[in-house]
Amino acid sequence: MMDHLLNAKVMFPPTPRVLAPAAWVVNQAMRRATIATMPHWMRRLAGVRQPRVVDALITPVMRIAFRLGQANPERAVRMLELLSPSTVPIVAPVLLEIPARRPGTVTPAQARERVAAVL
Questions:
Q1: What's the angle, vertex CA 47, arms to CA 44 and CA 48, rounded to 5?
Q2: Is the Cβ–Cβ distance between 6 and 77 less than 8 Å?
Q3: How far apart, in Å, are the Cα atoms of 33 and each of 87, 89, 95, 98, 103?
Q4: Residue 42 contacts residue 53 (beta carbons within 8 Å)
Q5: Is the per-residue pLDDT at 44 higher than 80?
Q6: How far is it, in rounded angstroms, from Cα 9 to Cα 6?
Q7: How many CA atoms lie within 13 A of 88 on its CB side?
Q8: What is the structure's pLDDT at 35?
Q9: What is the mean pLDDT of the segment spanning 101-111?
Q10: How far apart are CA 41 and CA 39, in angstroms?
Q11: Which residues of 64-100 are buried (b: 16+ CB within 10 A; e: fewer)?
Q12: Of 61, 71, 79, nearest to 23 (Cα)?
């Protein structure tokens, strides 16, 4: 199951054949970066192996990628549109600092009440 969850290809839109190698590279980088964030006990439990040297190599690559995204939020949203279009409606307002239509935090129970009121 963990192997499936670590496969970012499931979130990619259909990719033209010419872009398949780039999609493979992005998928592999995201997999290795995600594993690098997992504690070693969790890796053992999930049967996921990755050498510490890979953790050490992928971390600066991802830091640079995220810094580039922070430096230009519009570019980050465009990249997200290519990599994971279904996440754009959720993440874009955060990246572009668009204020919430309804500021504040609600409990799960309050959220269920609001949904029930609409239905």
A1: 90
A2: no
A3: 19, 24, 21, 28, 33
A4: no
A5: yes
A6: 9
A7: 16
A8: 94
A9: 91
A10: 6
A11: ebeeeeeeeeeebbeebeebbeeebeeebeebeeeee
A12: 79
What band does 96 get if pLDDT is binned at 50, 70 and 90?
A: very high
Residue 58 has a CB neighbour count (10 Å cut-off) of: 21
Enter the tokens of residue 56. 């050490």
Most confident listed range (21-35, 47-61, 71-85): 47-61
Instruction: Report DSSP letters for 56-89, one per residue.
Output: HHHHHHHHHHHHHHHH-HHHHHHHHHHH-GGGHH
Question: Which among 74, 94, 87 is positioned nearest to 11, based on CA atoms?
Answer: 87
Torsion from C-alpha of 57, 59, 63, 69, nearest 10 degrees: 90
